[in-house]
Amino acid sequence: MSAESSPSSVLSSLWQQIRAVLDLVLDLSFKRFVTPRLVRMLYVLSLLAAVFYAGSWMFSGFKSGTLSGLFTMVTAPVAFLLYLIFARVTVELTLAIFRIADKIAPLSEEEAQKAVQNPAPNPPS
């Protein structure tokens, strides 16, 4: 067993990640975004919930009868696939918005510095 995979190092790494997330969540200045760091975890949790829901829906159809059970055996995977696509697009759209914000922030800071250094003349009245 190597030192990297020892339980104490795994717990230490996990604790560091938890502290980093708590630091982001408790950042009242809102200078750093927490969503891009949490989005992977939220996506995985949403997929696990969808697998559980699709599986339970698939097998609950047999309580109503064989025909209903066969119908849910076909439609549950289709519904899961549609949810998978919707969740992925939503996550990618969210990340795209945050990446746009990250790219725009330095530009607005540069514009603000230029405006301070070279104030625009007042328009004639």
Task: Explain what you see.
It is a single chain. The chain has three helices and no strands. It is elongated and about 80 Å long. It is about 80% helix and about 0% strand. It starts with 6 loop residues before the first helix and ends in an 8-residue tail after the last helix. About 0% of the residues are buried. By secondary structure, it is an all-alpha fold.
Outline of this structure?
The protein has 125 residues and is mainly alpha-helical.
- The dominant shape is elongated
The total of beta strands comes to 0
Residue-averaged pLDDT: 83
Q: Oligomer, anyone?
A: single chain
Sheet with the most strands, sense and barrel status: none
% residues in beta strands: under 5%
Rg over CA atoms, rounded to whole Å, is: 25 Å
Spatial separation of the terminal alpha carbons: 79 Å
**Structural class estimated from helices and strands:** mainly alpha
Helix content: over 70%
Q: Which stretches of 5+ consecutive residues score pLDDT under 50? A: none
Number of helices: 3
